[in-house]
Amino acid sequence: MASTVKRAFRCLLDGLRSLPPRRRVGGPGRSKAPRVVVIRRFNSKDRRRASTSGGPAAAATAPVTIRVATFNAAMFSMAPAVPPPAHDDDDGEGCSSWRGPASGSALARRPKRGILKGQSSASASAAPASPDGERRRHVCISLPDDEITPHRSSASARMVTRPATNGGGGGSGSGSGRWKSVFGAVWEHQQHYQQRRQKQRQKQKQKQEQEQATTSRSASAARRRSVAEVLREVGADMVALQNVRAEEGRGMRPLSELAEGLGMRFVFAESWAPEYGNAVLSRWPIKRWKAHRLADHSDFRNVLRATIDVPGAGEVSFYCTHLDHLDESLRMKQVNSILRFADGRHHILAGGLNALDATDYSADRWAAIAKYHEQIGKPAPKAEVMRHLKAKRYVDAKDFAAGVCEALVVAPNGQDAQGTCKYGTRVDYILASPNSPYRFVPGSYAVVPSRGTSDHHIVMV
């Protein structure tokens, strides 16, 4: 055994001696120290670095965060879909102001109209002098915008006078005095008239400025927010819209304008009236979509399914619906129709379910809601729909709400959840289907005020 090992070792040495010499780099002063190879241990920190930069396989397993929202746009009747276009004559404060012609324009070069033509400086210098050596002084009275102003060819205005003569020819001294008194009275009257006109113009200008400021404040308050502006503040990647208007004859406006203003794609399905219905906005491509009529063929409401290609997460099924607002039994039929339509596929269900969750309210609050429904002629509140969905193990995004609520959305006494409609109750929901791969982020649920753009608030997660 020892001889065999010795023979193998000798063969290995002979093979090494037969190799060509290694080529060295550098001069004769190069260090002959052996090259050292360091082998690092793969610790936990290195594993985390490799997992985050492990290529497409690692990126596919990394979670992708998506912002989802639902909003009842109230048919764009309370606010425009997009802000009104800015006019060219806008002064930046919401009020328009007239701008005069440019100095080089033809209108600016047009001479003023007057009842007496002013004498030019050249003609004035060439005019014959009076017998007593004085030149006659002239006046130009122009009437722009019903206004009498003296011609100001010099620092002071000039009036027409006749020079006094010492004897005959041009008349007596009394005649000259009459001319001076007449034109002096005209000049004095003109000065008083200008002062009165100037005061009137100042008062009128101040009044116009006050009216414009009031109009500007009211106009800015009236268009303080548009639907596009409040949705842009939310920053959602996918939005379920109910009660939107899309006129086919006008290029699906105003829904198309809203989507363009947000930089999103959209699909639309008519629901309770022609050109009115549900829509889905998406920041990413919408690969497929389908509208399903709820309950039966006589039901005009529907659920709109959009299959969205989310980068890093694949296809996400996003459902938008708007259920009946009066009859709970009809809502139960509509919900069961949605469940059959889903057929076990994972999805996110968002929209106006118009149903109440009994766990949101205390007994006193529920009694107050029932009393109010009776006063306004609505059916008594029921909670079968939400109880049925939770029995089907749907996950409510409200369970992932943060501890601090939006100050502008008040939760009435005896109510654990913020209201989403004008009655103060929660009727708009975002739900995840049972056993779906979608997980709500804790603390991400919020009810965002619509700021007067609708009678519903925005629900997002």
Automatic annotation (TrEMBL):
Query: Which Pfam families does UniProt cross-reference here?
Result: Exo_endo_phos
Q: Which GO terms describe its biological process?
A: GPI anchor biosynthetic process
Q: Where is this region: Disordered?
A: 82-226
GO MF: catalytic activity
Q: Which domain of life is it from?
A: Eukaryota
Q: Where is the composition biased (Low complexity)?
A: 120-131, 211-221
Which residue range or ranges hold the Endonuclease/exonuclease/phosphatase domain?
218-456
Which residues lie in Basic residues bias regions?
Answer: 194-205
Provide ranges: composition bias, Gly residues: 166-176
InterPro entries cross-referenced by the UniProt entry: Endo/exonu/phosph_ase_sf, Endo/exonuclease/phosphatase, GPI-anchor_lipid_remodeler
Q: Which GO terms describe its cellular component?
A: endoplasmic reticulum; membrane
Protein name as it appears in the record: Endonuclease/exonuclease/phosphatase domain-containing protein
Organism annotation? Oryza meyeriana var. granulata
